[in-house]
Amino acid sequence: MFTSTFVDALALLATFDARVGEIVWLSLKVSGGAVVLGTFIGLPLGACLAVGRFRGKHVALVLLNGMMGLPSVVVGVVVYLFLSRSGPLGSFGLLYTPSAMVVAQTLLVVPLMAAISRQVVEDVWQRYAEELQVMCFSWWQSVTTLLYDCRHSLMVAVLAGLGRAMSEVGAVMIVGGNIDRSTRVMTTAIALETSKGDLPLAIALGVVLILLILGLNAFAFLLRQWAMQRYD
Questions:
Q1: Residues 92, 97, 103: CA angle, nearest 5 degrees
Q2: Own/partner pairs for 218-226, CB < 8 Å, 24+ apart?
Q3: Which helix (H) or strand (E) holds 96?
Q4: CA 103 to chain centre
Q5: Are 166 and 108 in contact (CB under 8 A)?
Q6: Contact at 8 Å (CB) between 42 and 117?
Q7: Would you place residue 139 in the very low, low, confident or very high pLDDT band (cuts 50, 70, 90)?
Q8: How far is residue 186's CA from residue 25's CA, in Å, rounded to a whole number?
Q9: Kind and range of the H or E run holding 61
Q10: pLDDT given for residue 97 in this prediction
Q11: Burial track 168-205 (b if 16+ CB lie within 10 A, e otherwise)
């Protein structure tokens, strides 16, 4: 049974099974949407924390690092409460839709992306702080300049956020409902199909997910190495 299950799973991948393709495509759309939002929120936030000098900065950094470990189910419950009919955003009807899943994943990836971008920008800020100050750059001009200068290294933060989003299961299960052909992504489908006993489909999706995560990590490593050589 063990061997036949893997053979059936590989057959689903080899024949480009429609169910696998549909689930993978929705996963990429949801995770991609969350990463786009996370990029516009997390990267500037991290850069602002790296450059800014304000009271309570250390507290903000502690909170940011702590939020990287937020349990996904807690985020899912919070988003669920906000989007439910009795919640403040219930009138938008977003619960159990891909949009709700994007919101939940965005809340999960923003702290990670912000923390990475803060470290990257802070390293460069220490090198060029005096030069930017001599050129009379404002605080915001320094932030935007450093973000542009570090754009290649910051791709690591984007790829890390994408990997985090794609591997998430708890929050998207709660706010998406794991509805077939609507909100079923790879992680939730793997959990469901395993409980149903459809192991070939679960393994096929697992193989795709693992390959995507490994590919993202390999690309992030190579990009980081290239960026480090570029700045040296």
A1: 75
A2: 219/159, 220/155, 220/156, 220/159, 220/160, 220/163, 223/152, 223/153, 223/155, 223/156, 223/159, 224/153, 224/156, 226/152
A3: none
A4: 11
A5: no
A6: yes
A7: confident
A8: 9
A9: helix 57-67
A10: 94
A11: bbbbbbbbbbbeeeebbbbbbbbebbeeeebbbbbbbb
Residues 105 and 202: beta-carbon distance below 8 Å: no
- DSSP one-letter code for 91: G
pLDDT in the model for residue 128 = 78
Tokens 């802070």, residue?
122
Question: What is the set of domains in the chain, with CATH numbers?
Answer: 2-231 (1.10.3720.10)
pTM for the complete prediction? Answer: 0.88
CA distance linking residue 5 with residue 202, whole number of Å:
10
Determine the Cα–Cα distance for residues 198 and 169; give it in Å rounded to an integer: 18
E strand or H helix at 1: none
